[in-house]
Structures are given as C-alpha cells and as structure tokens.
Amino acid sequence: MAERGLAVTLYEMRPIRPTEAHITEQLAELVCSNSFRSDNAENNAVGLLHEEMRRAGSIILRAADVHKVPAGGALAVDREGFAGEVERALEAHANITIQREEINELPGADAGSVLVASGPLTSANLGASILERSGEDSLAFFDAIAPVLYKDSIDFDIAWMQSRYDKEGPGGDAAAYINCPLDAAQYEALIEGLVNAEYTEFKEWEKDTPYFEGCLPVEVMAERGHETLRFGPLKPVGLTNPRSPEIKSYAIVQLRQDNTLGTLYNMVGFQTKMKHGDQKRILCAIPGLKNARFARLGGMHRNSFLNSPQILDSTLRLTAQPNIRFAGQITGVEGYVESAAIGLLAGRFIAEEQAGTETVLPPSTTAFGALLTHITGGHITGRHVEAGSFQPMNINFGLFPPLEGKVHKKARKPAMAKRALEELAIWLNA
Fold first, then answer.
1. Can you give the residue ranges of every domain in the chain?
2. Which residues contact 144 (CB under 8 A, 6 or more apart)?
3. Which fold would CATH assign to domain 145-302?
4. CATH number of 2-138+306-428
5. Each residue's pLDDT tens digit, 177-198
6. Burial class (CB in 10 A: 0-12, 13-18, 19+), 49
7. Which of 3, 139, 179, 316 has its CA 20 to 30 A from that of 374?
8. CA distances from 218 to 23, 129, 154, 199 (A)
C-alpha cells in the first residue's frame, strides 16, 4: 500500500502489550523457526512462492535474502538481522506511520480501509471484537517452539557438520547442519524419555484445542509410533558420520544455524511442550549435547485463525463489513512465507480499490492464487464450511490446478512452477 502511494498507519501493540511468545518489540520477530523452508523454485511449492514474492516486490523476501544463513537447500535467516532490516525499512518509509498501541476492537464501517494482520496471537479484546463482528467462532490450534543452543557448547568430537546429501543452499555452505548420531539403544532411550516426560498442563479452556499437524511437538510424534521420528526429522539418510563412514547411524538429530554469527543453533523437529527440567535432562542425553547450553528452551502457545471461507470474500474482505480485510496467519495459512504472501496480496487489493481500478485476482495456477483460493473457499463446493473442516495449510502443489494432458510424474512440479511464473508475469503486468 505504502509503495503505491497510500498513507499507512501501522499499529503494533508490542511492547505496550506483550504476547505469550514474543520476546522483543521488533516488528518482524520470528517466534518459532528461523527457516523459510525450501528455496527451490522449480521443485518445491514454497520455493516457488519465494520467487513469486520476490518478483512482486516483497519486503520480507528482500530482507530474508540479505540476512540468509547457511541451511542446505532451505532459506534460513539471522533472526535479529532479518527483523531489524524489516523494521528499518518500515520506519524509513515516507508513507508509513508506526503507532505502538493496542487496538481493542475493530473500527467501524466509516473508518476507511482497514487491514487486520494481527496474527495467531491476536489479543483477547480484539479477538472478541473480530468474532462479534464476523458472527463466527474462531478455530484454534497449539503451535510449539523448538529449543535453541549455543554452538560452542556442542561436542564436535561426536557431532559433525553436513547438509543432507551435501546439498548447498541459498545461504551457501554444503555443511550447514550440525548432526548428532544415535545408535539403536540411544534412540530407544530418547523415545522413552520423550514419552515419559512431564509436560506443560493446558488450561481448561485450551484442552479441546488440537495441534497443527505441520508443527507437532516432538513428544507427540514419539507417541504416534516408535519409528515416527526415525522416518521424520531424525531420519539418517543422506548423512555420513566422517568418524565411521562404514557404519550407518540409526537416527540423527540435526541442528540448524539460527543467527548470522553462527553462534546459535536450533534443534530441527524438536518443538516441545515438555517442562524445562525434563527438556534439559532428555536433550542433554543426545550424543554431542551432554554439555549443551540453551539460549532458549522450547514452549507452546495457542494460535487462532478464522473460518475464512465462510466470512471473507475473494479479495479478503470481511463480508459483514467490507471496509475491513484480513491478512496473514489469522486467515488460515500456515508459515511465515505464506502469511507474508497473503499480506502482500491484501495490500495490493486495497491499493487497487483506493485507486478505483479493477481488482484482478492472481491466477489459481500461481502459488499466490493457490493460497488465496484455499482460504477464500475455492477448496469446497459453494461457500458453506462445516465446523472444523477448514484447517491451516502450508503452500503445496496439491492446491494447484492439475496440468493439462499427460505429464511424467518427475516433470509435474517443474511444469507447474514454469506455468505459475509465466502466468504470474501476465498478472503482475495487468
């Protein structure tokens, strides 16, 4: 909106009103992972979304590219550098005014264009106002945070640096991850510890809240099956212990760089609701982590999102009050990149509306269009959504329309990506 000449006032309640998960007042603080996931635009849907956002002028991708850190094939960022880059750009923009105060209720119909991007940690008062104005109940799920360790506390007589299949990613360095090997007995002990640990207790009003399947606590994955972790985040494939290359590890715990300096690493797949004492005891039993020091232990927070297909129109307007739009994770997309992409779209829609020009939706064949279709009801017949049927979704090629004609399985993703970028170019120039 600001880039298209509109005067924008951005309201941020932190630090006046903190949340359960943020620890700074930075406008783009990353709460959970520091990874924007795969940056492969040809074979991965989120990598394609990265490229679409770059071409559409996304400040988020611009800041991510400046502050990327080694992460194999993923785009991971230095948390503080990234957040600082975004905040500086917003503060320096001539058309943006930043107001540090809490908004307790939705503005009225005479307030002009309003964009609500309050995220999954929307404050209670604003959340209640949104529910009242929309006439819907919010849906919610629990999201978990992984522990972050100091690199210099890891034992490199046991651990080693390597990316899976030695793949070099956008941050450079084919040895981007720290790997801690487990034999069968050590894996068994880890699973037993996870299953029998003490966990944070939920409040009464939280007990019926489900987990988000894309970010399950490590102990919940362990409970789902003895081999679940070994075929998930602890899979040993594509990694070779240089001290005993002839012996294949039974399982491997990976840690991913969390800041530019390379002093902090987060435990991949180890988001957790274990109490802090059990976290330290169980995680320090992993080979290489005996003397690990934690910059942050794992935790959980309750996330909320709207029944968007029922209450938003195709341009993200609240049908009950069309001067209000929603964007970001509260609309029912999952992930930093997806949330920012919906914000980018909402801003374009408002700018076009204010300019009096026709709003042209992104083609459903693009990653932008696939996400928009998902959250505005295109995944169902008609507009009716049964309670509980709409769930947060990461971008994936299953949301895209199928290709025409027969295409070999290995060629489908590249063909979908090629089609998306071709049609994106037409849309951006429309």
1. 2-138+306-428, 145-302
2. 32, 211, 215, 216, 217, 271, 272, 273, 298, 299, 300
3. Elongation Factor Tu (Ef-tu); domain 3 (2.40.30)
4. 3.50.50.60
5. 999 999 999 999 999 999 999 9
6. buried
7. 3
8. 23, 35, 21, 12
